[in-house]
């Protein structure tokens, strides 16, 4: 049976600090409104003196005196008996109520670095060893012996890791749900090969099966799927649909008891492993396969889904509704580092039974899969991707340049965008709030008065090198201060969101003025998850005219995955964004290095 979310005190080390974590605070109204006023200044032609800005400030001031205190009091009262007032709304608003396809629009991916070994180049060996390590990580979660995460020695919330395994998003009209199944009763994974689904038991007598047995079983599955004709109506493609359409087709599938059992097995499986027939070579090919694959050899509703291609290329795709990327980053980073240490198993049995999950396809489902394939192909072909990687400048050198690595790449992105478009536009950076119980993210608005001054000064042909450096330093300082406040639960967007949720009747003009929606219309959506074990990490843009900029700041190199809609109204191209990232990186490195050298003389 599925189990629901529980906040009961856990017994193992993994959850030792949960009861001690602070509750998510409700910021002071005056503090948020002051920050909000400052955050929108860069979008007015004349900044703080612009007549339109001053007009809207009067609207904000009116809110501060009228409806604001009433809503603030309601929010404080609402938060009193909750350890995380935001989570009551956020999962549904940001994820489960989201109706566009989860892939490619809300799921995120990691692509694993290549391993120059037999395991790294052989699909079945890689899949078996990867699965074995995933099972070891899963057992550490189940036994609660996995060490809890900390940031600078401070414990952070581990609650979301409960949703990592034996879990699935369930499509429903208007708003999906999420079910977590008892891992002790569901000791199997699901393998997808050539659009067919197989159930693979990974425990026997409460013990994990050996890696040799996993090799044997996976080899049998691959042989079996290769021997059968192509699946004419791949059920996996239905999970790529608009969520309301998928919910309708899901109910059609559930009418059949055979289908119902197969769906239940997929949903309750520990995780999904996909054996792909493709042979990605370039980093863009590998990232595309990680991002969405062919749409059919996947089950996009699972939070943990691995894939291995014929040439050993591997990675991970995560459904986002109950968990952000940091827990799965940790898992994948550990798995790949462990794979690099493994030797190929020597004794491999060649006989194993397969357990294929059956689906009976009605005419309605057949038509639905045909339509889903067409829409999926049109959707992914409407998106462009370019992977920008810059070697010789990473965390180590950025620190020598006396800059925060994260703030550095944020200013690099701002400079590249300004060089390309001559403008700044609303930019989202994900700030983790996991220091609080149930914390997920807050938005940090990366465009500030200081970042605007930096990019405009840097591009000013008459500005001196000293002036450029000073503007850069000021922008970096502002960014570090701002994202730190956001991570401490003192951002702008989540607080205003909470207040808006409690409005009775007509909303105040603060929420309906065009600048309110514009300033959180994320033309640039950015987030950092860094690992030396990955050569790919990314997701899609969040608005039609926007950019998805997933980045890694590793020890000696930088990575930005650029995604954009082709033929967008602003004419943005992924290749050109990557080009300007390179130009900006070269300039920043040259100027800041010269400053460092000069300071040593």
Automatic annotation (TrEMBL):
The active site is at residue 320. Its EC number is 2.3.1.7. It is an enzyme of class 2 (transferase). Residues 24-568 form the Choline/carnitine acyltransferase domain. Pfam families: Carn_acyltransf. GO terms for biological process: carnitine metabolic process; fatty acid metabolic process. It catalyses: (R)-carnitine + acetyl-CoA = O-acetyl-(R)-carnitine + CoA. It is found in: Mitochondrion inner membrane; Peroxisome. GO terms for cellular component: mitochondrial inner membrane; peroxisome. It comes from the Eukaryota. It is a peripheral membrane protein. InterPro entries: Carn_acyl_trans (IPR000542), CAT-like_dom_sf (IPR023213), Cho/carn_acyl_trans (IPR039551), Cho/carn_acyl_trans_2 (IPR042231). Keywords: Acyltransferase, Fatty acid metabolism, Lipid metabolism, Membrane, Mitochondrion, Mitochondrion inner membrane, Peroxisome, Transferase, Transit peptide, Transport. GO terms for molecular function: carnitine O-acetyltransferase activity. Carnitine acetylase is specific for short chain fatty acids. Carnitine acetylase seems to affect the flux through the pyruvate dehydrogenase complex. It may be involved as well in the transport of acetyl-CoA into mitochondria. Belongs to the carnitine/choline acetyltransferase family. This is Carnitine O-acetyltransferase, mitochondrial. It comes from Ogataea philodendri.
């Amino acid at each position: 049976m599925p189990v629901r979310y529980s906040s009961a005190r856990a017994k193992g080390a993994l959850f030792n600090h949960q009861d001690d974590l602070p509750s998510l605070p409700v910021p002071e109204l005056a503090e948020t409104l002051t920050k909000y006023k400052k955050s929108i200044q860069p979008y007015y032609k004349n900044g703080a003196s612009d007549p339109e800005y001053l007009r809207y400030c009067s609207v904000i001031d009116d809110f501060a005196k009228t409806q604001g205190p009433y809503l603030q009091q309601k929010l404080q009262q609402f938060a009193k008996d909750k350890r995380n007032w935001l989570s009551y709304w956020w999962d549904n608003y940001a994820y489960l109520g989201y109706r566009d396809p989860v892939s490619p629009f809300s799921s995120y991916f990691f692509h694993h670095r290549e391993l120059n070994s037999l395991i790294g180049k052989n699909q079945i060996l890689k899949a078996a060893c990867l699965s074995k390590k995933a099972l070891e990580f899963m057992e550490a979660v189940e036994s609660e012996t996995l060490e809890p995460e900390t940031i600078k020695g401070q414990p952070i919330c581990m609650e979301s890791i409960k949703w990592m395994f034996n879990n699935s998003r369930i499509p429903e009209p208007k708003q999906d749900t999420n079910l977590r199944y008892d891992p002790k009763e569901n000791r199997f994974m699901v393998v997808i090969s050539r659009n067919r689904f197989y159930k693979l038991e990974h425990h026997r007598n409460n013990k994990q099966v050996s890696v040799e047995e996993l090799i044997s079983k996976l080899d049998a599955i691959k042989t079996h799927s290769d021997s059968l004709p192509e699946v004419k109506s791949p059920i996996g493609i239905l999970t790529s649909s608009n969520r309301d359409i998928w919910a309708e087709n899901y109910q059609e599938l559930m009418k059949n008891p055979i289908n119902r059992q197969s769906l239940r097995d997929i949903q309750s499986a520990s995780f999904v492993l996909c054996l792909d027939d493709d042979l990605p070579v370039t980093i863009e090919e590998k990232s595309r396969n990680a991002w969405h694959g062919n749409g059919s050899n996947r089950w996009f509703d699972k939070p943990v889904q691995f894939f291995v291609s014929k040439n050993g290329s591997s990675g991970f795709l995560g459904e986002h509704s109950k968990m952000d990327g940091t827990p799965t980053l940790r898992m994948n980073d550990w798995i790949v580092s462990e794979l690099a240490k493994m030797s190929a198993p020597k004794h491999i049995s060649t006989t194993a039974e397969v357990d294929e999950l059956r689906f009976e396809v009605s005419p309605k489902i057949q038509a639905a899969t045909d339509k889903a394939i067409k829409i999926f192909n049109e959707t992914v072909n409407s998106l462009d991707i370019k992977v920008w990687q810059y070697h010789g400048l990473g965390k180590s050198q950025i620190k020598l340049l006396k800059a925060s690595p994260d703030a550095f790449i944020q200013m690099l992105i701002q400079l590249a965008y300004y060089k390309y478009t001559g403008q700044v536009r609303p930019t989202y950076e994900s700030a983790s709030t996991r220091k609080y119980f149930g914390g997920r993210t807050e938005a940090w608005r990366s465009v500030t008065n200081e970042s605007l001054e930096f990019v405009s000064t840097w591009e000013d042909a008459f500005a001196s090198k000293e002036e450029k450096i000073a503007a850069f330093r000021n922008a970096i300082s502002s960014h570090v201060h701002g994202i730190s406040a956001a991570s401490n639960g003192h951002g702008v967007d989540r607080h205003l969101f909470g207040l808006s949720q409690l409005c009775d009747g007509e909303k105040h003009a603060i929420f309906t003025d065009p600048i309110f929606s514009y300033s959180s219309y994320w033309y640039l959506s950015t987030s950092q998850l860094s690992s030396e074990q990955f050569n790919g990490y990314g997701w899609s843009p969040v608005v039609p005219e926007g950019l998805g900029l997933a980045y890694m700041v590793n020890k000696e190199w930088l990575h930005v995955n650029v995604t954009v809609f082709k033929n967008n109204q602003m004419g943005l191209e992924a290749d050109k964004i990557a080009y300007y990232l390179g130009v900006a990186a070269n300039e920043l490195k040259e100027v800041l290095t010269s400053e460092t050298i000069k300071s040593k003389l």
